[in-house]
Amino acid sequence: MAEWLEYLKRDRLLGSLGEETLRRKLLPLAAERCYTAGEELLRPQQTENRLGLILEGRVQILQLFPSGASSLMAVLRQGGLLGVDLVFTRTLSSPYHAVASEDTRVLYLPAAPLTRPNPLTPEECLAVMRRALMILSHDNMKKHYRLTILSQRGLRQRVLAYLSMQAARRKSASFSIPFSREELASYLCVNRSALS
After folding, report:
1. What is the distance between the alpha carbons of residues 111 and 131, in angstroms, rounded to a whole number?
2. Is the pLDDT of residue 34 over 90?
3. Which pLDDT score is estimated for 33?
4. pTM of this prediction?
């Protein structure tokens, strides 16, 4: 539990609640689950009423198509939040697959105590909601950038748009990207061999 507390204190959604609140009100509700590489954490139409904090490993958010093709929507690493975009919706239903791309540990917390007072105070709930809005707004901007990239007609233009955005974001012409070659091809919705 001490390890869980350290992760929660650093979390961008819950860290602002303070150590005592995390220890007394949220830690007793937490549960850890381990996944092996390739194991599915979420599938489309699955109802999710809890948040997952990635303690270790990586999770790919994928859109799978009937043809067998897939599109990489995002990669969650240590400290990433799984389900923050679902638990504040009316249906709580996932539109995507979440798959562990390596051995992964996830700390789950039920969402209900975060969205309604008890055990949190109304002020603490409001703080969580404000943080969630910030996180969702940030994720929305990422999706906007991705749509801008995917609206480019050719492979060369998509790669150039992606790299230009990365350079602008980092304010440098020299940077590393967070994807493997296969992940970048999937993210850009292009053939891996053509990308190479």
Report:
1. 14
2. yes
3. 97
4. 0.84
> Would you place residue 68 in the very low, low, confident or very high pLDDT band (cuts 50, 70, 90)?
confident
What whole-number distance in Å separates Cα of residue 54 and Cα of residue 5? Answer: 13
**pLDDT confidence band for 115 (50 / 70 / 90):** confident
Hey, is 144 helix, strand or coil?
Answer: helix
| Per-residue H/E/C for the chain | CHHHHHHHHHCCCCHHHCHHHHHHHHHHHCEEEEECCCCEEECCCCECCEEEEEEECCEEEEEECCCCCEEEEEEECCCCEECCCCCCCCCCECCCEEEECCCEEEEEEECHHHHCCCCCCHHHHHHHHHHHHHHHHHHHHHHHHHHHHHCCCCHHHHHHHHHHHHHHHHCCCCCCCCCCHHHHHHHHCCCHHHHC
Q: With a cut of 90, say whether residue 114 has pLDDT above it.
A: no
Distance CA 168, CA 90 (A): 36
Q: Is 97 helix (H, G, I), strand (E, B) or coil?
A: strand
Residue found by looking up tokens 């748009």 in the block: 161
Q: How far apart are CA 119 and CA 112, in angstroms?
A: 10
Q: CA-CA distance, 161 to 172, in Å (whole number)? A: 15
Of 99-103, 143-147, 185-189, give the range with the top mean pLDDT.
99-103
